[in-house]
Amino acid sequence: MTHISLTQMLESSLWGRRLSAAELQRVLRECRERPVAAREYLVRSGEKAEYWVGLISGFGKMSIGTADGRETTLISVASGGWFGEGTLIKHGHWQYDAVALRDCRIALMPRETFEWLRATSLPFNHYLQQLMSARMGSFIARLSHDRLLNSTERVARCLASFFNPELYPEPGQFLELSQSELGQLAGVSRQRANIALHQLEEAGLLSTERRGIKVLHLDGLRSYTSPA
Question: Where is the HTH crp-type domain (predicted)?
Fold first, then answer.
């Protein structure tokens, strides 16, 4: 896997490419990088949000849980993606846990830098509007999928969701994703995820490989319905 630096990640991001040279230089000076090991927290529920968070590399999930151990995954975040803008805008505390599913490197933009961009950059504000709209659409879709679809259909829609360029910049045809990670994100067990992948492979929509999943027919995943 190609190593990407913090500077490269910021310069190539959808919003970074829209900034003026002076704006980008300030962002490069003030953002910092932090490594997060697999199963460690990217952010923790209840803590005050002080940074806008992006993934330079790795993969994570946002989830909420109860005292008795029950948990539901809200959304995933992959390399190139950013999260936490809504909480920063509200000057609030994290309402969810974000956990690294594998070793991650994260970019941290301080609240002051984030607020300065909101106050000075119209393109940055347009990007935030598009991002929040895409995330809301993702939440609505996930809610309907959880209530209306069976496990194989949910896995299909989960895989298709990675091809929303506003949430997952340039994912490529191959998704480096384990069955366990896919199960967590789709809200099914690893065993159910395994069965679903075999069914979707038999339908010619994907192929499973040692390091992940190759998507062969994206529209097919988006519209997949299990045989009666």
Answer: 149-219
Residue 1 clears pLDDT 70, i.e. is over it: no
Please tell me the pTM assigned to this model.
Answer: 0.84
Number of domains in the chain: 2
> Residue 160: which domain range?
149-223
More confident residue, 199 or 167: 199
Query: Token digits for 138?
Result: 């993702």
Tens digits of per-residue pLDDT, 118-143?
A: 999 999 999 999 999 988 988 888 88
CB neighbours of residue 72 within 10 Å: 12
Of 92, 109, 137, the residue that ends a domain is 137
Are 130 and 156 in the same domain?
Answer: no
SS3 105: strand
Cα angle for residues 109, 164, 111 (degrees, 5° grid): 15
| Shared-domain flag, residues 182 and 107 | no
pLDDT, tens digit, 9 for 90 and up, residues 196-216: 999 999 999 999 988 889 999
Cα angle vertex 26, ends 125, 59, to 5°?
65
Task: Tell me how far apart the alpha carbons of residues 184 and 208 are, in angstroms, rounded to a whole number.
Answer: 17
Sign, Cα dihedral of 144, 62, 81, 28 = positive
- 114/15 Cα distance (integer angstroms): 12
**Same-domain check for residues 163 and 205:** yes
Query: Which pLDDT score, from 0 to 100, does residue 18 have?
Result: 94
